[in-house]
Amino acid sequence: MICLIYIVNIYSRTILIIELSRFASLYPGRIHKLVFLDAAYDCNSPEYKAEYAKNPVPSMIPPWPAENPATIAAYAAAVTRLYPSLAAIWGEAMEENLKHSIKESPDGGWVDKMSDAINNAIRETVDSYTAPYTEIQAPLLSIFAIRDGSDYLSSEYMSADQKAQVLDYFKTVLTPHVQQYIEQFRRAIPNARVIVIPNGHHYCFIKQKEPVFNEMKMFLLDGQQVVGSARP
């Protein structure tokens, strides 16, 4: 069986940026429009790596529970406790996604379906890949979220000093870097429509759902009619 993609709209988050940006650059005639949701970064650039290496948050996060959570609810509770940024957008969509991302282990606990080896391989690929943004010919909407760090604070395991470190990092290190990168992106791809969400969330399509969907709707409906679809 052969599946032929004719003309489509593509929406991308960070992990999918590799496949989708590559596909868009190789097959421009098959892409109607392209949307990046806080995804159009260059994780392979030395500047990106240097700024993110200064992030104090990872070293503050406690280890995963020694015993696998006994229920899906317990697994969700562990995730939202350790990762406040996910707790900030947790809801039905995240619950449903979790159900498809974990499995019951032989000991009766719940574990991630993805092995550490695969997860590490994906992370290494993302961190070593430079997306061919300048080669993309399709109309492009890129939404960037400027994070202030408040979603990463934990009152359970962070001290007042640690919270201050996190907020200072986002204010004095990460935000200036992202703002500079966005300007570079604008210059490199002058025909792209760029939207910046102040005090945004990486999962902007959840926490800033209304403005994100409105921008996507205006972009996708602006001036053109979808003239193709997926063909079997």
Question: Can you summarize this structure?
Answer:
The protein is 45% helix and 12% strand.
How would you describe this protein?
It is a single chain. The protein has 232 residues and is of the alpha/beta class. It has one domain: 3-Layer(aba) Sandwich (Rossmann fold). 45% of the residues lie in helices and 12% in strands. The chain contains 10 helices and 6 strands, in the order E-H-E-H-H-H-H-H-E-E-H-E-H-E-H-H. A 4-stranded parallel sheet has the order 1-2-5-6, with helices on both faces. Strands 3-4 form a two-stranded antiparallel sheet. The termini are close together. The N terminus and C terminus are likely disordered.
How are the SSEs ordered, and which strands pair?
Elements: E1 8-12, H1 17-26, E2 31-37, H2 46-53, H3 57-60, H4 72-82, H5 84-87, H6 92-99, E3 102-104, E4 110-112, H7 116-128, E5 140-145, H8 160-188, E6 193-197, H9 204-207, H10 209-221
Parallel strand pairs: 1-2, 2-5, 5-6
Antiparallel strand pairs: 3-4
Report strand order across the widest sheet. Answer: 1-2-5-6
Roughly what fraction of the amino acids lie in strands?
5-15%
Tell how many strands the DSSP assignment holds: 6
Number of structural units classed as domains: 1
Low-confidence stretches: 1-12, 225-232
Say which CATH homologous superfamily is assigned.
Answer: Alpha/Beta hydrolase fold, catalytic domain
Percentage of residues in helical conformation: 40-55%
Q: Structural class per helix/strand content?
A: alpha/beta
